[in-house]
Amino acid sequence: MQTMVGTACESEDERLARLATEYADRQTEQGGRVINLQQELMTGSRLLIEADSRARTEMIDLHWEIQDDCRSLDQRYDQLGAERRSVESNRYWAPYLIDLTRRILLLVACLLPLEGRAVSKKTKATQYRVAFFSYQSKC
User: Fold this and answer.
1) pTM value surpassing 0.70
2) From residue 59, how far is each of 23, 44, 48, 67, 112 by CA, in Å?
3) Three-class DSSP category at 26
4) Which letter, b or e, does each residue of 70-94 get, where b requires 16 or more Cβ atoms within 10 Å of its Cβ?
């Protein structure tokens, strides 16, 4: 009976050894999968960190571009305000200048015929003098 118990124990021992071996193989296989997953996780994390770093760098660059655009828009707005003030100033003075110019032109137009008479009187006086002096020189 001992042989049966011994063989039965051996078979039980063999079965336990087989189970222990299978368990160790599974543990080794799972450990290998865990190591592979950890490596993939580390690679993915590294790629994610690099992509995040690039995205942040791009965002900072875009932020500075936006700041430059804002400064440019501010300068354009200031120039537009200066032009608007200049136009408003011209609108204020334009009617006065037009009226003044019209009055000066009207005055000049009124004085032109008088200047023509004065020129013609001067030319007649000059003609008389020339004739008088030429008559005296003959005498």
Assistant:
1) no
2) 52, 22, 16, 12, 75
3) helix
4) eeeeeeeeeeeeeeeeeeeeeeeee
